[in-house]
């Protein structure tokens, strides 16, 4: 996982470094110069304009300019505080005007040249990804020591281009937030035990209602494919005749009283997808989440059931909430702030639960403040039912024994990778489970030598 630190945290890391400032600036400038040479495919005879500000970003840019000159690059340094309306023609512009300390809109000079940004595009809020002014879009950004949230949130991904993290010798071991990568997933999802049997990873899905049976099917099928050894599906008020053949249907009344019966046999519970708005069912959800002795994933209408409830939010077992922005608003009374990491952390603390806040960049937060960010996936997932698939994957990973924070982060990442395994257009939620096995294999979940069949 790649560490992610806020601008305020980065300032503290800088201040705590035993290295002299000029040493750190030298390393940063060298990293920028190397990236420029890579972008240009060489140095001799190339033209580079460095837009340099008055602070540390400008200092990094000026060091890069000196190094590029030594490599035969014709370099012009332009003062960001006294820049012309249009920059001189160049093969590449280095945006070293302002960094995370900028507090006001920035209107850069115009250019038709490609741009490489130092730390982050000038004018991009390093915490939220909100553009202040009109930042220059970069083809590449070289950031230092750790990612900044603004590179991953809001307008950041569209403005930053390809992002690389350059190690300049700063200690970021205290970071509380990390970006999940493909290589992390096999370590977050426990392998099946050699002596595994179906009840070791059994998942009970309580979902569906008249007209919303599909949500229950999607969640149950995803739980199976993601490694739940046994999936029980209960649709409040009756048995759903369309239950997938391998799923065990189990009738429960609309108040969900029967769910508490043999719940202890299960390793996880998923409640909410397509559950509807019946008042008795919502009361049952609140009782069930509060009293469950196994970890609970609450999704969709299950989240709506928790709105305004009188539960004390002192759960018996771990709880994972999976809101999109609208559900977040219903739970808290307001939309998430642009600081989505702070928003997810606040909800996690308030409900004493792991929160998976869905979005183009999904933010997963634990009550203790730990955060995981997921950028896998794309807008193909913006179609009905994909959230039900995510809930099922998450329920399976929890059932397999994953820590709830790890399970939520891994599930969100796998869910995103499912989109990239599908065609570029025409994706529907039912397509996702059909690719789940190949995606898990590609991520080395359950490698052959560790699996039990």
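-> sequence recovered:
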């Amino acid at each position: 996982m790649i560490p992610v630190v806020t601008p305020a945290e980065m300032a503290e890391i800088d201040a705590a470094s035993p290295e002299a400032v000029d040493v750190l600036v030298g390393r940063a400038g060298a990293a920028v110069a190397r990236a420029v040479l890579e972008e240009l495919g060489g140095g001799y005879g190339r033209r580079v304009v460095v837009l340099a500000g008055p602070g540390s970003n400008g200092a990094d840019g000026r060091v890069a300019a000196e190094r590029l000159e030594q490599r035969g690059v014709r370099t012009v340094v332009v003062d960001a505080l006294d820049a012309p309306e249009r920059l001189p023609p160049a093969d590449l512009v280095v945006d070293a005007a302002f960094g995370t300390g900028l507090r006001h809109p920035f209107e850069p000079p115009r250019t038709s040249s490609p741009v490489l940004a130092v730390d982050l595009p000038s004018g991009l809020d390093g915490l939220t990804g909100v553009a202040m002014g009109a930042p220059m879009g970069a083809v590449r950004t070289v950031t230092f020591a750790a990612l900044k949230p603004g590179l991953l949130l809001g307008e950041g991904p569209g403005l930053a281009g390809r992002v690389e993290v350059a190690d300049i010798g700063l200690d970021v071991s205290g970071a509380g937030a990390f970006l999940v990568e493909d290589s992390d997933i096999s370590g977050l999802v426990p392998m099946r035990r050699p002596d595994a049997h179906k009840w070791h990873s059994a998942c009970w899905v309580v979902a569906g209602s008249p007209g919303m049976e599909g949500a229950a099917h999607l969640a149950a099928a995803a739980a199976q494919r993601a490694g739940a050894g046994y999936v029980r599906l209960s649709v409040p008020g009756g048995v759903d005749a369309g239950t997938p053949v391998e799923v065990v249907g189990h009738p429960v009344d609309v108040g969900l009283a029967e769910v508490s019966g043999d719940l202890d046999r299960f390793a996880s519970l998923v409640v909410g997808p397509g559950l509807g708005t019946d008042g008795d069912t919502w009361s049952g959800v609140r009782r069930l989440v509060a009293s469950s002795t196994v970890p609970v994933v609450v999704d969709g209408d299950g989240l709506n059931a928790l709105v305004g409830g009188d539960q004390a939010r002192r759960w018996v077992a771990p709880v994972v909430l999976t809101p999109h922005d609208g559900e977040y608003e219903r739970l808290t009374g307001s939309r998430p702030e642009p600081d989505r990491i702070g928003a997810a952390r606040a909800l996690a603390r308030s409900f004493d639960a792991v929160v998976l806040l869905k979005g183009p960049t999904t933010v997963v937060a634990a009550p203790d403040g730990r955060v995981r960010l997921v950028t896998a996936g794309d807008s193909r997932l913006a179609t009905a039912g994909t959230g039900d698939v995510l809930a099922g994957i998450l329920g399976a990973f929890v059932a397999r024994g994953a820590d709830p924070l790890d399970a939520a982060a891994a599930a969100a990442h796998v869910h995103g990778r499912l989109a990239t395994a599908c065609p570029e257009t025409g994706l529907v939620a039912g397509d996702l489970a059909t690719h789940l096995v190949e995606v898990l294999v590609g991520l080395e979940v359950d490698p052959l030598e560790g699996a039990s069949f």
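DSSP finds 14 helices and 17 strands in the chain.
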